[in-house]
Write a structure and sequence with these properties.
Blueprint: E1 7-8, E2 11-15, E3 35-45, E4 52-55, E5 58-61, E6 63-64, E7 67-70, H1 72-86, H2 111-116, E8 118-120, E9 123-125, E10 129-131, E11 134-137, E12 148-151, E13 169-173, E14 195-199, E15 206-216, H3 218-229, E16 234-238, E17 241-247, E18 249-250, E19 261-271, H4 279-282, E20 289-291, H5 293-308, H6 313-322, E21 323-324, E22 331-332, H7 339-342
Helix pairs in contact: 1-3, 3-5
């Protein structure tokens, strides 16, 4: 990704929106109003996945009842990060520009805090989106890649040619389909202090999870559906050429070495009729609306149409990063440490134009 180099850095800084987040009172939980229901979804690993625990220099995936799981907090964090960027939410780390400072008052919440919750000192709001854990689906045990020797290190944000001093950006990692069979391995014996041995779940494994939502407003519900499904079969420019493909998520650790690319498909959407809120008092009500198959596809397309139609700089750059290219021919890696001695002002290539 450095200019005038054949290789690409694994990440890129995606600009946030210029406008200040819209902050307002959320719909609260004491009465049912807005959109409530549940989502059933399937997650497929496209490259190895690791959401793990540390055992010395080894990192292994987290398990429950002898089978791997994806914690609901990991799924929620992935969705929230996307919601902050796509929906123009605040930066909960307060590492961004002053426009996107974290929300502090429960009656003035950005869209991502209204959806996923907030806490500041004594002020808190629990949010309206709740993720269950992802449960592995299959017979026996999933395939685990053993003893993957890799280099892991902290970000070097002191190199400002890569890490811009501007705070109105978010860090997003490229997909790397070449790592489908395993992460980029390290064969350099001189950096043992940075070596980790990973035991990730292989590609082509499947998890299912459930997500519940309550009292979402229309814009919040549309953003939730978009962050879950992203976009499929779209044509856009990446690396200076037009490509047609799908947008997929990044999850877990090892993103710089090609890990964590996952595909999410909603398999069932249930929306409670607002009239059903009276059933606890009258023993009456309306059955929920259930969407599957083609009806589900149409419902998602209809509700996310406005977001899919956006062509601002945030969405344009985000799409170029999340596009999964089956014919990807770029090499993704970090420069060697000595490279920085003679390239202190070399900037990153534009992921859209490739220049």
């Amino acid at each position: 990704m450095p200019q005038n180099e054949a290789f690409w850095n694994p990440y890129r800084m995606v600009p946030v929106q210029d406008e200040q987040p819209v902050r307002r009172n959320p719909l609260t939980h004491e009465i049912f109003q807005g959109m409530s229901g549940e989502v059933e979804a399937k997650l497929t690993t496209l490259t190895p996945l690791l959401i793990g625990v540390q055992e010395g220099s080894h990192k292994r995936h987290i398990y429950s009842n002898l089978l791997p799981i994806i914690p609901g907090s990991s799924l929620k964090g992935m969705l929230r990060s996307l919601a902050e960027l796509v929906g123009n939410g605040c930066d909960v780390t307060n590492g961004s520009d002053t426009k996107h400072r974290k929300c502090e008052a429960v009656d003035k919440l950005c869209i991502s805090c209204r959806m996923f919750g907030m806490q500041h000192k004594q002020n808190s709001f629990m949010g309206k989106v709740f993720c269950g854990e992802g449960k592995w689906q299959g017979e026996g045990q999933p395939k685990i890649l053993q003893q993957q020797r890799v280099l892991l290190a902290n970000p070097k944000d002191r190199h400002t040619a890569f890490y811009t001093t501007s705070k109105n950006v978010r860090k997003i990692y490229h997909h790397n389909p070449a790592c489908k069979d395993g992460p980029q391995l390290d064969h350099n014996q001189q950096r043992e202090n940075m070596v980790a041995y990973l035991h990730p779940i292989a590609a082509d494994e499947t998890f299912i999870f459930r997500l519940d939502f309550s009292n979402l407003e229309e814009d919040e519900f549309a953003l939730l559906l978009y962050c879950l499904t992203l976009e499929r079969n779209i044509t856009l420019m990446a690396n200076g050429r037009d490509h047609t493909g799908d947008l997929y998520h990044k999850l877990g650790m090892g993103k710089p070495i090609g890990m964590g690319s996952v595909k999410i498909d909603i398999t069932k959407l249930t929306i409670q009729a607002q009239e059903s809120t009276f059933r606890y008092r009258t023993w009456e009500g309306t059955d929920p609306k259930v969407y599957i198959g083609e009806a589900l596809h149409k419902e998602i397309i209809g509700r996310t149409k406005a977001l899919c139609g956006r062509r601002d700089k945030t969405m344009t750059h985000l799409r170029s990063m999340l596009l999964w290219l089956t014919n990807e021919n770029r090499t993704f890696r970090y420069p060697e440490p000595s490279w920085f001695d003679t390239h202190s002002i070399t900037k990153l290539k534009d992921p859209i134009t490739g220049k």
